[in-house]
Amino acid sequence: TQLLEQSPQFLSIQEGENLTVYCNSSSVFSSLQWYRQEPGEGPVLLVTVVTGGEVKKLKRLTFQFGDARKDSSLHITAAQPGDTGLYLCVPYNQGGKLIFGQGTELSVKP
Amino acid sequence: DADVTQTPRNRITKTGKRIMLECSQTKGHDRMYWYRQDPGLGLQLIYYSFDVKDINKGEISDGYSVSRQAQAKFSLSLESAIPNQTALYFCATSFGGGGGDTQYFGPGTRLTVL
After folding, report:
1. Least CB–CB distance from B42: residue in A41, A42, A103
2. Alpha-carbon distance B23 to B75, whole Å?
3. CB pair distance less than 8 Å for B50 and A101
4. Which of A104, B8, B35, B78 sits 20 to 30 Å CA-CA off B111?
5. What residues are paired with A70 via a beta bridge?
């Protein structure tokens, strides 16, 4: 069983602040995905990271996959109220099914 | 039109009733999934199907059953609903290409069991 820890579980910040969400495991993953779920909607894929050490940027969001492919982080620069939502890191294994954890609930106040 | 649709969007029912939640997709994906979401527990996989003839149990299948009527349709049934099945239910689909298979979610069904 792959044990995945995401932190923090809750985060409430003011507009304009920076933040980082962490995703850690003792297992090695072939790839890892980050989803965002806005209130009242289903999760939507933000990015997939595949290569150890990979960094991907999506506007103000920066995603990094650890060199050993056991951890990942999401950094948001100058957070906006529109960034509010549940952020989920989801490891992909060869079995083809995704295991979603609790995620990080982010609230960005104007 | 939405690629993944769920009906109903909201349902209130009583303990012991049989409930069916339906999911349809126009993405042409072979893989379909049912999840439930409870506050603070993230998304838990109930059942998944990699093609029409393939049905697999997920983490929390007890009390649920599914039917894959066609590639595009995957329904979830609660044979005898109980209050702790009150939750938000999501259907999802994926292509199945491997190496990071993107899942596309429906809008969810909010189920309340009284």
Report:
1. A103
2. 6
3. no
4. A104
5. none
A vs B: CB pairs below 8 A? 61
Residue A59 CB contacts under 8 Å (≥ 6 apart), including other chains:
none
Task: Show the CA angle centred on residue A1, arms to residues B92 and A92, nearest 5°.
Answer: 40
Take residue A107 and report the two structure tokens written for it: 């609230």
Structure letter (DSSP) for residue A98? B
* Cα of A63 vs its chain's centroid, Å: 8
Closest to A42 in 3D by CA, of B76, B73, B43:
B43
CB-based contact A31 B100, cutoff 8 Å: yes
A102–B42 C-beta distance less than 8 A: yes
Per-position pLDDT tens, chain B of length 114: 679 999 999 999 999 999 999 999 999 999 999 999 998 778 899 999 999 999 999 989 999 999 999 999 999 999 999 999 999 999 999 987 655 678 899 999 999 999
Tokens found for residue B14: 């009583």
> From A86, which residue of chain B is nearest by alpha-carbon distance?
B42
Residues of A in contact with B99 (CB under 8 A): 30-31, 50, 92
Q: What are the chain B neighbours of A33 within 8 Å (beta carbons)? A: 100, 102
Which of B33, B35, B103 to mutate: most A Cβ within 10 Å?
B103
* Separation of alpha carbons A90 and A108, rounded Å: 23
